[in-house]
Amino acid sequence: MKKAVIFLILIVVSNVAYSATIYDTLHINKSPYQIGGPFGYTFQACVFNSSTVFDVQNEIIELNEGDILELHVINHDTLGHTFTIDNIVDNANVILPFNGTNDFTIEFNLIGAYRFYSDVFYGKHLGASSLIMYGYENYPRYYWNMFEQSDTLSNEIADLTATAIPFDYQPDIFTINMKVHPDLENDPHAKIVQSVGDTTYIVVANSGKMLHVLHFHGFHVEIINASLTPLYTGWVKDSFPILQNEVVLVRLVPHQAGIYPVHEHNLINITTNGVYPGGMLNLLEIQP
Predict the structure, then answer these.
(1) Nearest-CA neighbor of 257 among 194, 172, 213?
(2) I need a surface site. Which of 26, 95, 151, 220 has the fewest CB within 10 A?
(3) Given its phi and psi angles, is residue 160 left (phi above 0), alpha (psi -120 to 50 degrees) or beta?
């Protein structure tokens, strides 16, 4: 009887999620950026970086279940921004321009993917949007942050002559993690390299200004959560839409080896300034 009691206590203890306080700093940087090589152009980008050095790819934050995030945000732009996580950080979150700062203590109740962004027009629509993954730390985790842009519009947003997205909006560059194909093949957050049978989690965010539809070749994925369309939860699909401002978490368990494309299902979105292939075209490399 004593052995049974001791065994039960060990099980309970082993399931406890231990918390840690994670300290991190984000820098809001804005700069022109050349994308797409000879087929691209220069556009204006505003992003969250890990340092004062501008990097067009937003910083991604990974936390283990139980972690508490102590976050310091510094705004190097000449315009004010916010640090916003819907339903979690949405007040007292302004970061003033010219190196203004703000501090946030962030705790999550549910494991999953969360989007943080600057909730001002010129920040959100120049790309200041990224992801926090809370939990699933024992599995491979990948991040596809979808965003599209027009060079003319990005300049108008940056100089404040545009304060709304025009009805005839026609973007030219279609990115994942602010990169286009084939540059995505060198992004360890984007290109999936796993083995048959590996349980893998993929976070897909639509930080752009239009609906995107993602299509997997070779596999179906299970939708674990969709932030704006909970009806999708539990669906097993090879194609699904991602609404503007939505975050979708999917689980992939590959059953066959090979290299398979994943891409936006609208043909124009897998071009770069009209040149095919490019844009939102990614690869899965599944080893035996």
Answers:
(1) 194
(2) 220
(3) left
Phi and psi (nearest 5°) for 158?
Answer: -65, -35
Does the reported pTM lie above 0.90?
A: yes
| Residue range of the domain that includes 168 | 22-287
Q: Which of 103, 98, 259, 145 is nearest to 194 (CA)?
A: 259
Summarised one tens digit per residue, pLDDT across range 188-208 is 999 999 999 999 999 999 999
Q: How far apart are CA 54 and CA 84, in angstroms?
A: 21
CATH number for 203: 2.60.40.420
Instruction: Kindly report, residue by residue over 106-138, the tens digit of the pLDDT.
Output: 999 999 999 999 999 999 999 999 999 999 999
CA–CA gap between residue 36 and residue 174 (Å, rounded)? 10
Q: Is residue 173 part of a domain?
A: yes
Which is it for the CA torsion 214, 125, 106, 191, positive or negative? positive
- Reference 263, options 254, 273, 255, 272; nearest CA is 272
User: Are 151 and 42 in contact, with CB atoms under 8 Å apart?
Assistant: yes
C-alpha to C-alpha distances, 62 to 59, 112, 141, 169, 217, nearest whole angstrom: 10, 11, 9, 34, 27
Mean per-residue pLDDT for 59-78? Answer: 98
Does residue 83 fall inside a structural domain?
A: yes
